[in-house]
Design brief:
mainly alpha; 28 helices; about 70% helix; about 0% strand
Length: about 800
């Protein structure tokens, strides 16, 4: 086919020569606008405005005629192309006719050849359809058999209570076979029975969980008792270890090297970790152990609910029921005293949270940490409330201590599982003062009973165990040598009885303060121990001394008791320090003054008072002194000999009972009293005057007393014997002044401070005037002789002292 020639643009012919130049120009512009496709409206508007539309029409017709030749040429070219195309089409139609004849011939030949094959193909297709139907039927039968097998297995598992396996069978049927079940009847049955199986499984597991919840309450109580018992055993082993350590420290302190190895003993077969509880921490208890702690029913039910897809509902069910159980456990029976029921109360709560800790750690998300913490906070709040209420009602220290110990063991056992117990310990600390007040009250009654039973007799010990129990146990011995038995102790039975009461107080106080969250509590124990000694024991002893002591022997024994109790007080503070875990050197450094000082002073004052009464009986013989004796007595006056005999007898007797320091204080007080009585006799109005011979006799008396004091150096030290002599200072200085050649030296401040510091001005004046009595002029001056310078000095002394007064 020939290609179509492109159209040729024919240029417009120019206007006729007859047209004027203006028209020619306008025609060219119009032709150019048409060629360029511009808008012709300006030309039309111009033509009508000028009133010459015929000219515009003429120009347009001229342009159209100029295009006719171009159109003619284009049509001529297109006509040639059309003729060529028609020729080609006619040639193609002849070729098509020949091809159609060839195809018809081939088709006839193919039909004759393929007819048998088509018959065979139809037979094959029919046979294959039958085969497919048979195979599909067999497949459906196989599915039904599998379904029936799963149903049979599910029934078997249900009968044998293998609920999880039955549920898995139902799930497998639902997910794998329900949609492809060929039998409508079977499908309807499955759609009905699968939900029924699930409902039955859920109901069955909920019943098992309900039974488990009932059983776990009993198990929890036993479990809590076991855990608290193990904590108690561990505490006891710890106390034994501390005791061995204290013994080793004490022995090391005393350089007893043969006993240093006591701490290396081991407890064979003791499981310090504790517990049958920990042996099953990371898994399930087998249900037949000592604990009987089996979580399998709970976990099985949780697993089944997870399989059912309703684990959140089961979690809520479990949490609510456990919360109700805990609330029920909080009930305190008003019919049973709390002292009898407190162990069951706290053991039940302890076991509850031990179970919850196990469920939290091994339950696979059955409970959350937040839920357990909420339950624990609720339990702590309730336990604190119960303790506050019960402690406020208790009036017996021992009852409060028993409950405190059990609560502290509860805290120890649950702290191992990560539960915070500070709130419980704070409640115990809050009632510390009340406990000690009750304890002080009990000790006050016991001490009163012990003192009331005292017979004021020295304690007789026939056996060594009695000595160990009453003396060594409180470190009352004066020597490490065991005495021969029977042994008569230098104290009465009151001393060990009171020591046992105080020791029991210390141990109870330490027991209450121990394991209460406060590590350093020695200062608190010491504070209450001081109160016991200074407020209770001291007051009771003072009361006993003032009301029940009669006779020197009883007073002496009470004074001896006080000296022994002074040694016992050192033991008390050391014992408190040891039990509190404080080194003895720190306890010794912190010891204050003797807390029984009032009772000791009262006992010694009473003994001294009774002895002074005896002494006063002998000193009454002073009235028999010849104050105007013609010559001095060399052997002393009668009264002083009686006094010295009494004092020597007293010392020999008191040495058997009283410690040296107490004896020194008593003798010093007596000698001071004797000195006062001698000076009092010289000052008294019953003695009007006396001479130097009488004064020399008194000097001999004082020398005898000083000699007695010096003889006590074998019992006391030289310094202490010198102190005893100082008790006679007033009488000695007064006699020395009267016998002095220059009595006026008393006015010299230096000499007075050195030699006469114990004298009173008024007494010196009174005694000096009695010695200066003019009726006794023969001593100071002979008839017709000069005035004696001693008398002159004495007169000057009296005059100056009177002026000063």
């Amino acid at each position: 086919m020939q290609s179509i020639k492109s159209r040729r643009k024919v240029a417009p012919e120019g206007p006729g020569e007859g047209v004027d130049s203006a028209d020619k120009q306008e025609q060219l512009l119009l032709s150019s606008a048409i060629y360029n496709g511009e808008d012709l409206s300006p030309f039309i508007r111009k033509a009508f405005s000028s009133g010459k539309p015929e000219t515009l029409l003429h120009h347009l017709r001229h342009f159209a005629r100029s295009k006719e030749s171009e159109i003619e040429e284009v049509c001529k070219a297109h006509y040639q192309d059309f003729i060529l195309a028609v020729d080609d089409l006619r040639s193609l139609l002849s070729d098509v006719d020949s091809l159609k004849s060839s195809l018809s011939l081939s088709n006839s030949h193919l039909q004759s050849v393929a007819q048998p094959l088509l018959s065979s193909l139809d037979s094959f297709i029919e046979t294959r359809n039958v085969s497919d139907n048979v195979l599909l039927c067999l497949h459906f039968v196989k599915i039904c058999l599998q379904i029936m097998d799963l149903c049979s297995r599910a029934n078997t598992h249900l009968k044998s209570d293998n609920l999880y396996l039955a549920l898995k069978c139902a799930d497998k049927i639902e997910k794998g076979f329900l949609k492809i079940t060929p039998s409508v009847t079977l499908k309807r049955m499955l759609e009905k029975q699968i939900p029924a199986i699930r409902a039955y499984v859920e109901k069955k597991t909920n019943k098992e969980v309900g039974d488990w919840l009932v059983e776990i309450r009993i198990v929890s109580r036993n479990l809590g008792q076991l855990a608290i018992g193990q904590a108690s055993s561990a505490r006891q082993r710890e106390e034994e270890l501390r005791m061995k350590q204290r013994q080793a420290e004490e022995q090391s302190r005393l350089n007893l090297r043969d006993c240093v190895y006591a701490l290396e003993e081991e407890d064979d077969g003791v499981d310090l970790s504790g517990s049958a509880i920990d042996r099953s921490r990371d898994g399930f208890s087998n249900g037949d152990g000592n604990l009987g702690f089996d979580l399998r029913p709970l976990y099985r039910a949780y697993h089944i609910h997870q399989t059912l897809g309703i684990q959140d509902r089961f979690k809520q069910y479990y949490f609510e029921n456990r919360k109700l159980q805990l609330t029920s456990d909080f009930q305190v029976s008003s019919m049973t005293p709390f002292l009898e029921s407190h162990q069951t109360f706290f053991a039940q709560i302890s076991g509850f949270f031990i179970v919850e800790d196990r469920v939290l750690r091994t339950g696979g998300g059955l409970t959350s940490k937040w839920e357990v913490e909420n339950l624990w906070e609720m339990a702590v709040s309730k336990m604190c409330s119960v303790l506050e209420d019960q402690f406020s009602r208790m009036q017996t220290a021992n009852h409060l201590l028993l409950i405190k110990d059990y609560v502290s063991l509860l805290g120890v056992s649950l702290r191992r599982y990560g539960y915070p117990v500070n709130a419980l310990l704070d409640v115990l600390s809050k009632h510390r003062d009340k406990y000690h007040e009750l304890l002080l009250s009990d000790c006050r009654r016991q001490i009163s009973d012990a003192l009331a039973a005292d017979k004021f007799e020295q304690m007789l010990m026939k056996k060594e165990y009695e000595y160990s129990m009453n003396v060594l146990a409180f470190q009352l011995q004066m020597s490490d040598i065991i005495p021969a038995f029977p042994y008569v102790a230098p104290f009465s039975s009151t001393v060990p009885d009171c020591c046992r009461i105080v020791r029991s107080f210390i141990e109870d106080s330490v027991s209450f303060m121990s394991y209460g969250g406060q590590l350093d509590f020695y200062d608190i124990v010491k504070k209450y121990l001081n109160r016991l000694l200074s407020e209770v024991l001291d007051e009771a002893l003072v009361k006993l001394i003032n009301s029940s002591v009669h006779g020197v022997s009883q007073a002496m024994l009470v004074a001896a008791n006080m000296s022994v109790l002074e040694r016992a007080c050192e033991f008390f503070f050391k014992h408190a320090a040891q039990l509190s875990g404080v080194p003895l050197r720190m306890a010794e450094r912190g010891m204050r003054q003797f807390p029984l000082k009032n009772a000791r002073d009262a006992a010694e004052e009473m003994l001294a008072g009774m002895l002074k009464v005896k002494i006063d009986g002998f000193l009454s013989l002073i009235d028999n002194i010849n104050w105007m004796a013609d010559e001095p007595l060399q052997g002393g006056n009668e009264y002083v000999n009686e006094v010295i005999i009494f004092l020597e007898t007293l010392v020999s007797t008191a040495q058997q009972i009283l410690p040296v320091q107490v004896l020194r204080r008593i003798i010093k007080d007596i000698l001071s009293h004797i000195s006062e009585m001698i000076v009092g006799a010289l000052v008294s109005e019953s003695v009007k005057r006396f001479n130097v011979n009488a004064i020399m006799g008194i000097d001999a008396d004082i020398r005898l007393l000083e000699s007695f004091a010096e003889d006590l150096a074998s019992v006391l030290s030289d310094a202490e014997a010198s102190q005893l002599k100082s008790a006679l200072a007033e009488s000695r200085q007064l006699i020395n002044l009267l016998l002095s050649n220059n009595p006026e030296n008393f006015l010299n401040a230096v000499i007075r401070e050195k030699s006469y510091n114990a004298l009173n001005y008024r007494k010196v004046v009174i005694v000096s005037e009695k010695l200066r009595n003019p009726s006794d002029r023969s001593f100071f001056t002979a008839r017709g002789a000069k005035q004696n310078p001693k008398k002159k000095s004495l007169d000057a002394l009296i005059k100056r002292l009177k002026e000063a007064s």
